[in-house]
Automatic annotation (TrEMBL):
Keywords for the protein's UniProt record, in alphabetical order: Hydrolase
Lineage summary: Bacteria, Pseudomonadati, Bacteroidota, Sphingobacteriia, Sphingobacteriales
EC number assigned by the record: 3.5.2.6
Single GO MF annotation: beta-lactamase activity
Leader sequence segment: none
Name under which the protein is recorded: beta-lactamase
Class of the enzyme per the UniProt entry, highest EC level: hydrolase
Length: 298
């Protein structure tokens, strides 16, 4: 075979593979679009399969309120400070009575109503795995405020994000939740960036700690996890706004689904401005996960 023929065959095979991938991508996207078209909600989706370079987005560049999804970003910023030697995971952090904001979700406050001293690692676990709002605001205070987290995330090349307020402020004023925003595309990029850690965004120890905790998330088990077979590893973070006047602005789940081959699928599903009930909103996320998992394992 001469070099011209060999080059042509290589090109043809590459083009064929590219077309197959595009067809696969379009088929999955079509299934998801068909499903969400019947729902009275704005649904943002971003999916990346790094093994075959499949990517697609629905409302990929639209701004969505993050709610507790931003706790993933806060955790990365805090772990980066740990790597810099500013803090350590074993460092004991006092949580005082004035930190125990009432009327916001906090298993930590319920367990320690008079305050407590905990290792930094445990506070991060509370924030991520139980979506604890008191833990979140304690970490934000240690970091110097929400703007410092935004600055850190943007320094990693993720520009479409705004982090301006803490949980206490966000939970006490419905309209302010939109100040903490991102896009489906940017959220999935953040997941992929910190998962692959190509530029050593985090040390090996911090990286392992982050993803181990994400795999143990206890909230929203009937969202992404509900859509995949029992036993499937899912490392994820949820977000929820509550409902006002029949409108729910955030029922979210973002994370990594691991296929039986161990291939990670990076997935963001944001359900916003929804007139559906909570069960339906969560079912939307589960269905997107189900379609995605089924597609890549068929």
């Amino acid at each position: 075979m001469n070099i011209v023929t060999r080059t042509f065959c290589t090109f043809a095979c590459t083009t064929s593979l590219f077309c197959q991938l595009q067809a696969q991508e379009s088929a999955l996207e079509s299934e998801i679009k068909q499903y969400i078209a019947t729902k009275k909600a704005t649904v943002g989706v971003s999916i990346i399969n790094p093994e075959c370079q499949d990517t697609f987005y629905i409302h990929g560049n639209k701004h969505f309120p993050m709610q507790s999804v931003f706790k993933f970003h806060i955790a990365t910023a805090m772990l980066a400070r740990v790597d810099q030697g500013v803090f350590s995971l074993n460092q004991i952090i006092p949580i005082r009575n004035e930190d125990l904001t009432p009327d916001i979700w906090s298993p930590l406050r319920e367990k320690y109503p008079s305050g407590v001293k905990l290792p930094l690692s445990e506070i991060i676990i509370y924030m991520l795995s139980q979506s604890d709002n008191v833990a979140c605001d304690v970490l934000l205070k240690l970091l110097g405020g929400p703007a410092e987290v935004e600055r850190y995330i943007k320094s990693k090349g993720i520009s479409n994000i705004g982090i301006a307020i803490n949980e206490e402020t966000m939970q006490n004023n419905w309209d302010l939740q939109f100040q903490n925003w991102t896009t489906p595309k940017a959220c999935t990029k953040a997941l992929e960036t910190f998962f692959y850690n190509r530029h050593q965004e985090l040390s090996e120890t911090s990286h392992a700690f982050l993803w181990d905790v994400m795999k143990k998330t206890e909230t929203g088990a009937n969202r992404l996890k509900r859509g995949v077979p029992p036993g499937t590893i899912v490392a994820h973070k949820t977000g929820f706004s509550g409902t006002r006047n029949g409108v729910t602005e955030a029922v979210h789940d973002v994370g990594v689904l691991f296929l039986p081959s161990s291939t990670p699928i990076f997935i963001t599903v944001f359900v916003s401005h929804s007139l559906e009930d909570i069960a339906t909103n969560e079912a939307i996320i589960a269905k997107v996960a189900q379609l995605t998992y089924a597609y890549y394992t068929k």
